[in-house]
Amino acid sequence: MKLSTFTSVLATSVAVATGVLAESIPFERLNLNDTALLIIDLQVGLYQLARDFDHTVYYNNIIAHSALGNLFDLPTVLTTSAQQGPNGPLPKEILDMYPTSPLIMRQGEVNAWDNADFRAAVKATGKKQLVMAGIVTDVCTTFLALSLRQEGYSVWANLEASGTTTPLIRDNSNDIMRQAGVKVVSLFYIVCDLMRDWRNTPGSAQVLPWLAQYYPVYGNLAKGHAAAIANGSVIPGEAGLI
């Protein structure tokens, strides 16, 4: 077979496969009234295994993921895996956010869905859309995400708050989840889809301060605009730029 023919056949196959996947998994919006937040094994010991991110950036990511529940008043379920061993507990910052939310301390189950108390806690939220992240991506996140899809839930996996040992393993795990219909998305995607409109509540009044704390790349955009308005002057050369 000529190279050009092979390339054409391959491109057609990929297009067909992508089209089939798109048809079988239609676009779905997050519904604030039907969403719960899952915090899966974001433990201080397991954190050491998250080597596909800068460690400081990644730590901020897991705290930001966890803070979504309070911003949008989402039912939140927390779980840990064998925390009495080297996996360790959840960070104090996360525990302090949810003093009354269910915390399921699994004693041995690798897949959180295998734990009856965790299943009960998720079902008790009454929500069918679940936003989640865990350490490690290829086990704690992927196993649970696939189980939830099998149970009929819609799942959004926060790719910035799940971590694992290598970028190769991360990318492969995200591909596996996507093929099962899991939406693998960013933190900002989740925030914007839950908010929908800056005029809503939560809207700009609540979300911009949250972004300033947890997503400073956008928070500083808002700060810069506010500072420019407060300063009230245009320096030579700027007037023609707007």
Task: Present the secondary structure layout.
Layout: H1 3-24, E1 35-40, H2 55-72, E2 76-81, H3 92-97, E3 103-106, H4 116-124, E4 129-134, H5 137-150, E5 154-158, H6 167-179, E6 183-185, H7 187-195, H8 204-214, H9 216-231
Parallel strand pairs: 1-2, 1-4, 2-3, 4-5, 5-6
Helix pairs in contact: 2-7, 2-8, 5-6, 8-9
Question: Can you give keywords for this protein?
Answer:
242 residues, alpha/beta, 12% strand
Radius of gyration: 21 Å
- Ends distance: 56 Å
**Outline type:** globular
Beta-strand content: 5-15%
**Average residue-wise pLDDT:** 92
If strands are numbered along the chain, what order do they take across the biggest sheet? 3-2-1-4-5-6
Q: How many individual helices?
A: 9
Number of DSSP strand runs: 6
Assign a percent range to the helix content: 40-55%
Low-confidence stretches: none
H/E element string? HEHEHEHEHEHEHHH
Query: Major sheet, described briefly?
Result: 6 strands, parallel
The secondary structure category is: alpha/beta
Characterise this structure.
- The chain is of the alpha/beta class.
- It has helices at 3-24, 55-72, 92-97, 116-124, 137-150, 167-179, 187-195, 204-214, 216-231, and strands at residues 35-40, 76-81, 103-106, 129-134, 154-158, 183-185.
- It is globular and about 65 Å long.
What is this entry, summarized?
With 242 residues, the chain is of the alpha/beta class.
